[in-house]
Amino acid sequence: MAPQPGVATAIIGALLGLVLGSFLNVCVLAWAAEPKGKVAGRRSNCPKCGTQIAWYDNIPIFSWIWLGARCRHCQQSISAMYPLVELATATIWGYFTWRHGLTLEAVRGAVFFTLLLGIAVSDFRAYLIPDEFSLGGLVLGVALSATSIDALSQALLGTAVGFGILWLIGFAGAAVFKQDAMGGGDIKMMAMVGAFVGWTGTLLTIFLGAVLGSVVFVPLALLGRRQLVPFGIFLAGGAAVTYLFGQDLINWYLGLAGFK
Hints:
About 70% of the residues lie in helices and about 0% in strands. It is built from eight helices and no strands. The chain has helices at about 5-30, 60-65, 80-100, 105-125, 130-145, 150-175, 185-220, 230-255. Helix 4 packs across helix 8 (about 230-255) and helix 7 (about 185-220) packs across helix 8. The two termini are about 35 Å apart. About 40% of the residues are buried.
């Protein structure tokens, strides 16, 4: 009998998420840096003084609180981003294992949301979506969808639609405005998203991402403030909503439009 969702599985998932969240911080720092650093064999170091962090100072969340958000060696402050990413990853894995138990579906959802978190943090910090998250996530998405021919075909179709639409938007925007209108990272990201949510979910993700981005940046534009748009953050938010509530939103819209 398959494991049932519950508190015990959620605790296991959350503990795993804490460990993965600490590793995710390392990945974001390495992959969003210029020049790009390596993750394999990398030890955690203080981002201010570079001193290697001992294991007892590297316990997710707890060590940051215990040390008062400061490095033991140089006493410089350590960003709250690190425990927040660990907490968010623990919440992701705890939620999906609570909802689905210790199953492949729990892993699929948790992996997808972990990738979205890494993309959002990287785009926020460096206006960059590392290929390791987008293309690496694409491979994972297709692999985790290979449970049936139908699921695999939906993943591949979603990948093609996600890549194709964002590429066309970028091409048309560049032709009209004579400058890049869509980052290559966003295009590759949507190929990854399509592997997890299929082609209908891809369309909904793009729509929701555009709405979220407009809510934030249209007021800034009206105030005359020109600012780079880390569109990956809004696409990540749209993809998360789509994964959890996409079919309900689509059914609601079809009913509202009189198609159901």
